[in-house]
Amino acid sequence: MTTIASGTDTLTRDVLTVLQPGFPGTTAPDWLLRRLGEGLASVGLFGRNIASPEQLASLTAQLRAEREDVLVAIDEEGGDVTRLEVRTGSSFPGNLALGAVDDVELTREVAFELGRRLAACGVDFNWAPSADVNSNPGNPVIGVRSFGADPDLVARHTAAYVTGLQSAGVAACTKHFPGHGDTAVDSHLALPRIDANPAVLAERELAPFRAAIAAGTRAVMSAHILVPALDPDRPATLSRPVLTDVLRGDLGYDGLIVTDGMEMQAIAATYGIERGSVLAIAAGADAICVGGGLADDETVRRLRDALVAAVRAGELSEERLADAAERVRALARWTGSAKASPSAADVTRVDIGLLAARRALRLTGADRFTPLTEAPYVAALTPVANIAVGDETPWGVTAELTRLLPGTETGSFAGEEAGHAALAAAGERRIVAVVRDEHRHPWMASALDTLLAARPDTLVVEMGVPQAPPRGALHLATHGAARVCGRAAAEVIAGVR
Question: Does this model's pTM top 0.85?
Answer without folding.
Answer: yes
